[in-house]
Automatic annotation (TrEMBL):
Domain RnfC Barrel sandwich hybrid residues, every copy: 3-57
Domain NADH-ubiquinone oxidoreductase 51kDa subunit FMN-binding intervals: 85-250
InterPro entries, per the entry: Ion_transpt_RnfC/RsxC, Nuo51_FMN-bd, Nuo51_FMN-bd_sf, RnfC_N
One Pfam family from the record: RnfC_N
Species classification: Bacteria, Bacillati, Bacillota, Clostridia, Lachnospirales
Gene Ontology CC: one annotated term: membrane
Protein name per its UniProtKB record: Proline reductase-associated electron transfer protein PrdC
Keywords recorded for this protein, A-Z: 4Fe-4S, Electron transport, Iron, Iron-sulfur, Metal-binding, Repeat, Transport
Molecular function in Gene Ontology: 4 iron, 4 sulfur cluster binding; electron transfer activity; metal ion binding
Length: 466
């Protein structure tokens, strides 16, 4: 295993402060850094010795022997379940990284919650009110090519149900809905069996389009209400939790286990083919390169390595460490060479930032001459990440395509959701624009259809009939 690098910021908020010194012997579960504000505890994920502390990380030389035992979280005998989740350093494992102990610190039984603004939701009755408090489990595994969330349902369903019940108890929610894509037949059947005697926990089936796992999309699909770009799910009397986060909650309470490992998917241009390699309970801090080697190694020349998903991930290097929020490692095919052709960038809240799209244009040897923004992409405050007004429901892109044509673009790169990509394709090619999606190289690498014209309906029946 060698060196393990634990970043001091693996969550929303400020970096943690080290509470160990160089030379310290540590075990799995040894507390090594604590929050300085909004944040979450960080623990050693291995047995070993601290060899270096930098401004942004703690580096541990892992011992040759790695026992399964871990140091349990240090909490009083009468600690609440919420205190255990906070002490364990659990964060949103789907990529967002918001401290779960903070998210769960809400009373969803409050009757004044869930009143919908009729201007935002004109399709609802003026007196519409959400009658229950909900835990909404995001099991969409929205980024294409990733499979570790679905695998956890199939193999650890009991832990999923336990984590749900604890989350409901902590927040005083009386209902839970598990949002999962209809294509995942085996996982759905596993859940059906587990929920046979759980009347307060149900499933909602999602279409296989991106971004059904976006937090506000989960609220909209499950509860039928739209949130603004600044509203949290609590405005709809709900808390949205990633499937893996749910399991970490169960581990923190049942086992007093700190958050020291991550499930993830490695796939792409690998020796042996592009099938998904799902690794469970990988120690946080191991390198990208080590996991790629465990998956067979890179097959020849490649384009880039993406940490995260094809839509929202970033390019990375072999020595980069995985964190609590790392969901995928994708090794891509090589980029096409566009020989300096003029390119336009259509920046969307659902995909990469303008910086990421410029990086992709450079890797394709294209010259960026025009930049436009999807009309639904909102910047809540200067410099903040873009938010989509209606994730997954796009009104059209003709105006932006006309701008690209006027600016002399031969190619455009888009990073849009399934529906938005569909609207680009309705007019762009007719104007002579050649379209790349920012995920193309990743999709080709994992054997997934390219994002162009939408082939599936956005509406999915709730009946489970296989």
């Amino acid at each position: 295993m060698g060196k393990v690098q634990l970043l001091l910021r693996q969550h929303v908020g400020a970096p943690c402060a080290p509470c160990v010194e160089v030379g310290a012997d540590v075990k799995k579960g040894t507390l090594i850094a604590t929050p300085t504000g909004l944040g979450a505890n960080i623990f050693s994920s291995v047995y070993g010795k601290v060899t270096e502390i930098t401004d942004d990380s703690i580096i541990i030389e892992a011992a040759d022997e790695q026992p399964d035992e871990f140091v349990p979280i240090d909490v009083p005998a009468d600690a609440s379940k919420l205190d255990m989740v906070k002490a364990a350093g659990v964060v949103g494992m789907g990529g967002a990284g918001f401290p779960t102990g903070v998210k769960l610190g809400i009373d969803l039984s409050a009757t004044e919650m869930g009143e919908m603004d009729p201007e935002i939701n004109p399709e609802l009755p003026a007196d519409f009110k959400i009658e229950h408090g909900y835990i909404l489990v995001n099991a969409a595994e929205c980024e294409p090519g990733l499979e570790h969330n679905i695998r956890q349902i199939e193999e650890q369903c009991d832990k999923v149900i336990t984590g749900i019940k604890y989350s409901m108890e902590i927040t005083k929610a009386d209902k839970c809905i598990i949002a999962i894509k209809k294509k995942n037949h085996k996982a759905i059947k596993t859940l059906q069996a587990a929920l046979a005697n759980e009347p307060d926990i149900t499933m909602h089936l999602l279409p296989d389009i991106y971004p059904m796992g976006e937090e506000r999309a989960v609220v909209r699909e499950c509860l039928g209400v739209n949130l603004t770009t600044v509203q949290l799910p609590s405005a709809a009397r709900s808390v949205v939790l990633n499937l893996e986060t749910i399991c970490k909650i169960a581990e923190a309470i049942d086992e007093k286990k700190p958050c020291i490992s991550k499930n993830l998917t490695v796939r792409g241009k690998l020796v042996g083919g592009n099938e998904a390699h799902v690794f469970m309970d990988v120690p946080v801090g191991v390198s990208v390169g080590e996991l790629i080697e465990r998956a067979g190694g890179i097959d020849g020349k490649y384009g880039e390595i993406i940490m995260g998903g094809a839509f929202t991930g970033k390019s990375t290097e072999m020595d980069a460490p995985i964190t609590k929020t790392t969901g995928g490692i994708l090794v891509t095919v090589e980029f096409p060479d566009l020989h300096g052709a003029n390119m336009g960038l259509l920046v969307c809240a659902c995909g990469g930032s303008e910086e990421r799209m410029r990086e992709l244009a450079e890797k394709m040897n294209a010259k960026v001459v025009s930049v436009a923004r999807c009309k639904q992409a909102i910047e809540n405050k200067p410099g903040a990440p873009l938010k989509c007004l209606r994730p997954g429901n796009c009104p059209g892109q003709v105006k932006n395509n006309m701008q690209f044509k006027k600016d002399g673009c031969e190619y455009i790169v888009i990073g849009n959701c399934s529906d938005c990509s569909n609207t680009v394709m309705a007019s762009g090619p007719k104007m002579g624009l050649k379209v790349f999606h920012q995920t193309d190289h990743a999709m080709r690498s994992v054997g997934h259809a390219l994002y162009r014209s939408l082939k599936v309906s956005k509406q999915v029946s709730q009946d489970i009939d296989f």
